Amino acid sequence: MQPIITVMLNPVLDQTLYLDRLRPGAVNEADNGQVYPGGQGVNIARGLADWGVPVIATGVLGTENAAPFAALFAAKGISNRFVLQEGSCRSTVKLVDRTSGLTTEVNQPGQPIQPDAYAACLWQIDRLCQPGSLVVLTGSLPPGLPDDTYAWLIARLALHESRVALACGGQALMQAIGGLPLPFCINPNRQELAQAVGQALPEVRDVLHAALHWHRNGVAQIVVSLARSGALFVAEGKAWHAQAHGMIGDGDALLAGWLAAQHQRRDIEDAMRLALACSTGMLGIVGSHSPATSTVRDLAREVRLTRLPA
Amino acid sequence: MQPIITVMLNPVLDQTLYLDRLRPGAVNEADNGQVYPGGQGVNIARGLADWGVPVIATGVLGTENAAPFAALFAAKGISNRFVLQEGSCRSTVKLVDRTSGLTTEVNQPGQPIQPDAYAACLWQIDRLCQPGSLVVLTGSLPPGLPDDTYAWLIARLALHESRVALACGGQALMQAIGGLPLPFCINPNRQELAQAVGQALPEVRDVLHAALHWHRNGVAQIVVSLARSGALFVAEGKAWHAQAHGMIGDGDALLAGWLAAQHQRRDIEDAMRLALACSTGMLGIVGSHSPATSTVRDLAREVRLTRLPA
User: Fold this and answer.
1) Which of B98, B119, B125, B138 could form a disulfide with B40 if both were Cys (CB 3.0 to 4.6 A apart)?
2) What domains can you pick out in chain B, each with its CATH number?
């Protein structure tokens, strides 16, 4: 099987700290925190690998905190083709207050990408891609790269006859679906899709219309997570509303399940079932784990699929 | 010159994040944070090295975030004899709210020390120590080591005819000064000294009496930081109250300056001047830097020394 190539230009280390009560402006004592490689690219690569898909991961990491990423990739059998640059990648700090149950999250934009690291990363991608390769471009862009970076990468990958699944929102998504060539697959959430079409999408049928618009424009697959309402899929000129018992807590696991099933030549309905099962199964899981295979199989059976008019 | 050996069993990475306004329970955006190796041991080793003293640093670090420590030691010319264990050392998160000016700090106890890493660290210390060596034992103890760890290490180092400067508070300090052999030098702050003697020390003369008690018991040098009121020194049967224009913001720099000056065979009065200058000069400095040499020289001249009855 040809590996799926995941690209992450701005990875993140997720640091979770548990406190009895967070007192702002004071010195707080926490339990020992957990530090996990995170960000959309890592989550998707891990989800794919956990479902038996061969994965190559590339992008740019900082020398100072690359070790946890390398350890995770080694543990999951993900081929590590990351380029290193000086410094460290950004981290996200999550402070969990046990008394209030609230989590205070602090995010950072990330370090600027260095030109030589970016050039080396592009060289890796060129070298890894073959006709028919699936390349997943993921996450926010680091400072120093313009909003049309993914649009430009999609054009470059088209020259390799590779297909792109794009997992990002905001301006980077809008630029990528505003020109040609288009990505093969996009997976915005409802808010990101609404932003891209410039109007609110309160009902599932509003989401459907927006997704069909991009599908008719040439985006082969569209996967939209709808949180409590499940997910909407558009592919092969058809559309489905898929609902599970749990909430779509993890859009990255949703996409990973969807791509993994197709990579294993399962049909579209099986792919939707696995996608929702992977996503809802992630609820309550902390760290670099996927739910047990048996759990996901059980969850997949319970997914309800509704054909929508396309 | 014989190097000073600094031992840190529970190092810490200091992570500082700047926010416009911290909203607890929400997702916050911060500027890119700064991550610096910290903790008493690193600060003292760095302060000594910045004043031209040869330093060997040992202790235990986690493989996952050892890189910033290694980079700092290399940059400062500190000989790195750290033992690595799996995992990562603890980090301190500081969230600086630009609107309120308040800093929210979240600390962790640190990872348990692994028996083989501890054994390897003890072997390093045994190998490095020579008769007359000065060994600085620093900071809180990691989970897994008992409160009498420093007391036991002081006894072990006495067999090598080495002297110990002890930079810690709490139970570890009380155990170390409650038996024999005693450390050569201690540098509690006012609260730690009060805790050790079991009573409040509101006036400088109260601090003096407590310090003289330990000095008469056999602790050769006692350095107490008094925050806004400067510092109190007891050595060679004499006592001084040293005051500077600035506040004693940094007890680690105070001890580093004190030990560095003596290592360079300056007299006690010069050592006190350098200690206060190093400490007050650190105010407002973020990261792994010491104040400029010229700044410290200027500050040292302005220190007022008052002999106290001993």
Assistant:
1) B138
2) 1-186 (3.40.1190.20), 187-310 (3.40.1190.20)
> Which letter, b or e, does each residue of A251-272 get, where b requires 16 or more Cβ atoms within 10 Å of its Cβ?
bbbbbbbbbbbbbeeeebeebb
- Per the CB < 8 Å rule, is B108 touching A32? yes
The per-residue pLDDT for A196 is: 86
Burial of A201-227, coded b for 16+ CB within 10 Å and e otherwise, reads beebebbbebbbbbbeeebbbbbbbbe
ipTM score of complex: 0.78
B139: left (phi over 0), alpha (psi -120 to 50) or beta: left
Q: pLDDT (tens digit, 9 = 90+) per residue, A236-284?
A: 999 999 999 888 778 899 999 999 999 999 999 999 999 999 999 887 7
Task: Give bridge partners of residue A221 from the DSSP assignment.
Answer: A185, A235
B108, A17: Cβ pair inside 8 Å? yes
Percentage helix, strand, coil for chain A under 3-state DSSP, each rounded to 5: 40, 25, 35
Q: CA of A33 to nearest chain B CA: how many angstroms apart?
A: 7
Are B117 and B142 in contact by the 8 Å Cβ rule? The answer is no
Q: Give strand pairing partners of A90.
A: A12
Instruction: Please tell me the distance from the alpha carbon of residue B194 to that of residue A65, in angstroms, as a whole number.
Output: 40
Over residues B151-169, the pLDDT tens digits come to 999 999 999 999 999 999 9
